[in-house]
User: Fold Acyl-CoA dehydrogenase from Roseovarius indicus.
Amino acid sequence: MHFDLDDWQETARRSFRKYLDAEVAPLVEAHEDAHRPPPPEVLQKMGEFGLLGGLLPEAQGGAGLDYLTYCTLLCELSQVWPSLRSIVSTSNLVLMIIAQRGTPEQQQRWLGDLISGRKTAFFALTEPNVGSDASNVETRARRDGDGWRLNGRKLYISNGTGADLGVVFARSGEGDGAGVSAFVVEAGTPGFSAREVRSMGMNACPLGELLFEDVALPPDHLIGTEGEAFAIAKHYLNVGRCFVSFTCLGLSIAAYEAALRYAGEREQFGRKIGGFQLVQQMIADMMTGVETSRLLACRAADALDRSAPDRGRACSMAKRHNSDTALRVCETALQVHGGAGYTRDFPVERYYRDVRHLTIAEGTNQLQALLLAQGALGISALRG
Ligand SMILES: Cc1cc2nc3c(=O)[nH]c(=O)nc-3n(C[C@H](O)[C@H](O)[C@H](O)COP(=O)(O)OP(=O)(O)OC[C@H]3O[C@@H](n4cnc5c(N)ncnc54)[C@H](O)[C@@H]3O)c2cc1C
Assistant:
C-alpha cells in the first residue's frame, strides 16, 4: 500500500504551499495575538484553491477532488495556520451537508457564497449539557405554522461568532422520542445571538456560545428529512475526523521541522544540541510519530475515497492516534527548544496550544476508543 502523490497532486500541493508561505504565513502571529479572524481575501483564496467545496463535483461548483488530494491541502494549511484550517474545514463540512442533503433551492441559495469563501459557516451540535452524548440534544425546534421556532443553546462552536450562517441540530416535534433535525440559521436572524468563548489556542478561529431565543425559521431552512439528522451529524463527524487526522499530521510536521532546525543550530557544552543522544531520541520519536500519523491519515482518506465498509473505523483510529501523537510531538518539540520553546519568540509554543483541543473536538479520544472497541467486540460500553 502506498499513498504517493501523483504529479498533478504534487503540483497542486506545491502551488498551494507557495501561496501560503508567501501570503498567509506573514499574517499568522498578528492575527493570533489580536484574536482576529483571517482577512476576507484569504478566505476567498481558500475557495480558489479548492479548500471550500473542492470535494464536490464540478457540476455543483466544486473541483471534483478526492479525499486524499483535499486532505493533503488541509495538511499544508495546518502547518501554516491551524485556525484558518478550522474555519475552512468547518465551513466545508457545512457546505457539503447543504450540497449533499439540501434541496436544489437550498443549494442555489447558500452554496455559491460558501464555496467562494465570501461567507463562512458553523456546525452546531454540542450544548452545555450535551457533549459526548451528542444524540441527546436539548435544543428544541417546535412547529410554528408551516415553519419552526428554535430555542436552546450551543457551546464550543468553531467559527461560532464570525460565521454568516450555520447548521444547527435540534430535537424537533413533541415528546421525548422526537428525532433530531438540522436547520440552517443565518446570522442576524431575530432571536439568534452569539458570544465568544475565550480558549487556550486557535485564537483566530472564534469559539462561540450560541443562543436561540424563539428563533422563527421558514420551512425551507430544514435540511434533509425531519427527525433524521443525527445520522447526518454522525456521517459528517466521521469525515471531520479524517480532516482532523490530517490537521494533526500537519501540526506534527511543523513541530518536528522546527525542532530539527533548532537542534541543528543551538549550541551547549561547545556543540550542537542535536549531537546529544537524548535530543536525538526526541527527534527519532517525533519522526516516527509523523510517519505513523501520515500512514493512518492517508489510510482514512483512502477508505473515504473508496467508500470502504471500514471507513468509520479508519477515521476514528486516525483521529485518535494522530491527535494523541501530535500532542506528544508538539510537546517534545517545545522541550527540544528549552526555555525558548516556552516563549512567543518561537512557533512551537503556539503549536502546543493549537493542537491541544484536537483530542477533544470531533468526539473525544475516549469516545473514539469506545467506538473502536465496540466495533471489535460487538459490545457497546455506552448503552445497554
Ligand atoms: C476547540 C473546540 C472546537 C469545537 N468545535 C465544535 C464545533 O464546531 N461544533 C460542535 O458541535 N462541537 C464542537 N466542539 C465540542 C466538542 O465536540 C466537545 O467538546 C466534545 O464532543 C466533548 O464534549 P464535552 O466537552 O461536553 O465533554 P464531555 O462529554 O462532558 O466529556 C468530559 C470527559 O469525559 C469523558 N467521557 C464522557 N463520556 C464518556 C464515556 N462514556 N466513557 C468514557 N469517557 C467519557 C470525555 O472523553 C472527556 O474526557 C469543539 C470543542 C473544542 C474544544
Notes: Strands lie at 121-124, 140-144, 147-158, 165-172, 180-186, 192-196, 207-217, 222-223, 267-268, 271-272. Residues 7-119 form a domain with the Butyryl-Coa Dehydrogenase, subunit A; domain 1 fold (CATH 1.10.540.10).
